[in-house]
Amino acid sequence: MAFPQHIAEKLAYNSAYICNYPQCNTLTVGPTVSTKQLFKKIGEAAHMEGEKQTSARHNPANQAMVQDISNGIWLCANCHKMIDKNNGDDFTLTELKKWKAEHEALIGDLLKMHKSPLPLIRRNSLNQKAAQNAVDLVANCGALYRDRMLEDPLLVIKSIETLRKALGAELKKIRDDKQLRSHIQEMQSACRELMNLSSTDMNIVWPSLEVVRFKIRKTVNCLAADFGCQISPHFI
User: Fold this and answer.
1) Of the candidates 126, 113, 115, 204, which has an alpha carbon nearest to the alpha carbon of residue 172?
2) Distance between CA 119 and CA 5 in Å, rounded?
3) Residue 38: what pLDDT?
4) Residue 146: what pLDDT?
């Protein structure tokens, strides 16, 4: 059962109509371009503990409070579906409560200081885009996953150098996110290591490439976990 309208509205107001998932921060309400009398709303008041026995994070001992605002969190429709997948096993009650508390505290502070959340949203959005771009660059570098029998070592080195430079371009787009910078720098470093070693001995290209593949696959999976990036099947 959905939350009563007044509860849903209060959750939305407390969140400034912004999704509480810290890696999303999607604005969940806005105007339509074609019809000025209408608006778009993609936000939903989600239950942290589900009402039905089959619901995610169902707690039979807390049913009296299931429709209380303390059991609600404001999310975009996509994140609402995400937290309830697999019976909610991937997203604990403690984690959801932390999202909500930190998000509402942030909105409250911004309101007190008369500051706009838009710079924060823009920064997070740009950083997530840079993270996805880095993952896509890696996915397009066939040297990182093709059979070595299909590869020319000189072209492999050239491909890795091109990837290193492209990652450097994405690095310049990152704003105030040490974690993301570190991930991309790790991939750059792996590329640079192969180039340095191969410059002295071409026979070391293949064993060095295996090390690069391992390091980049590990970092790509970190980006997927930390920034919600969609990754190629080659790196799963």
Assistant:
1) 126
2) 30
3) 67
4) 86
Instruction: Tell me what percent of the residues of the chain surpass a pLDDT of 70.
Output: 93
Question: How far apart are alpha carbons 45 and 71 in whole angstroms?
Answer: 10
Which tokens is 5 given?
């309208």
CA distance 104 to 149: 55
Q: Residue holding tokens 């999202």? A: 99
Q: How far apart are CA 216 and CA 210, in angstroms?
A: 10
Chain centroid, CA 1 distance in Å: 29
Q: Mean pLDDT throughout 130-153? A: 87
- By three-state DSSP, how is residue 1 classified? coil
Percentage of the chain surpassing pLDDT 90?
51
DSSP SS3 for 20: coil
Rounded to 5 degrees, φ, ψ at 20 are -80, -10
For residue 215, give the H/E element and its range.
helix 205-227
- Written as six digits, the tokens of 82 are 């995400």
Mean pLDDT of 66-90: 95
Among residues 200, 193, 203, 131, which one has the least CA distance to residue 167? Answer: 131
- Extract long-range pairs of 205-211: CB within 8 Å, 24+ residues apart: 205/153, 205/156, 205/157, 206/148, 206/153, 209/143, 209/148, 209/156, 209/160
**The pair of three-digit structure tokens given for residue 44, joined into one six-digit string:** 């939903």
Residue 12 has pLDDT above 80, yes or no: yes
Distance CA 67, CA 41 (A): 21
DSSP code, position 27: B
Q: How far apart are CA 81 and CA 47, in angstroms?
A: 11
